[in-house]
Fold:
Amino acid sequence: MTAVHFGFLRRRHLAGVLAAWALPTWAQRPASKRLHVGVEAALLSSGLAQHLQQAIGRDTGLAIEWRAGPGGALLSLLERGEVEAALTQSPEHELALERRNLLHDRRPVARSEMVLVGPAPRRAGRKQVAGGDPAGIAGGRDALTALQRIAQAGASGAAGFVAHGEPSGTRELEQALWKTLGPQPLGPWLRTAAAGPTAVLDLAQQTQSYALIERGVWQARGAKSGLAIMVAGDARLAATYHIMRSFRVNPPGGKLLVNWLAGPSGQSAVRSFGRGYRPVG
Structure:
C-alpha cells in the first residue's frame, strides 16, 4: 500500500471518528430489529403513539410496530412474551405482574387524566328551551359526587351513563370509582360500549349520555360530539402511562426503547405533542 493511499485511509478514519463524536448519543447506536410493542389504543386515537414512533425512529433507528388494544389484554400478551414491551395505563394489573417478576423496567412516560363528559348545558333562548346536563354536574371537580348524581338521575329516567366494555385502564378506574360509592347501580340507563377507545364516546354521543373519556382522546375526537366536559381536575381521575419490558423475551432494542421514552428525549417528545398529555417530570 502506498504512503499516499495509507494516509488517505487514516484521514478518512479520523473524519469518521470526529463525525461520530459530533452526533447525539442516540444516533451513534446501531439500528436494531423491529420491536413489537403493545400500546393502549387511546394513544393511537389521540395521535401520541404515532408522534412517539416517529421520534423514536429518528433518534434511535428502532423500528416500532405498535400492537394496539386495551391495557389488560396487552399486559397478558406481555406476560406471555408475545410483545417485547408495552405502553399502558392499567396500574393494578401492571403492579400485579411486577410483583410476580413477569415484567422489567416499569417506568412512567406520560401523564393524562380522565374527564367526565356529558350533554352540553343549553341556556333558554328565543328559539330553544334550556336543556342538557340532566344530572346538574357541569363545572364540578368531584368525580364521586358527579357519579352519584348521574346514578340518581338515571334511576328516574333522566340521564344515562356509558361504561367501558373492554379491560382498559379507563375501565379499571371507572370501576374503582363506582366501587368507592358502593354496589354498582344497575338499570337501562347504564349502557356498555363495544370495544375500542372511541366506542364509548360514540355511544355517549348517540344516546346523549355521560361517560369517562381519556383527555387525549377527547381533545382529538370530542369537538364534534355535541358533548362537553362536565367534571375535570379531580386527583382520582389522574392517569399515568408506563413503559415496561417483558420478562420472557429480551430483544437488543428493548432497553434502549425504555430508556428513550422515560428519559429526556422521550419526555421532550411528550411535551412537544401536548394535547392532553404531560411529561412525568
About this structure: The two ends are 56 Å apart (CA to CA). The longest strand covers residues 103-119. The chain is about 40% helix and 20% strand.
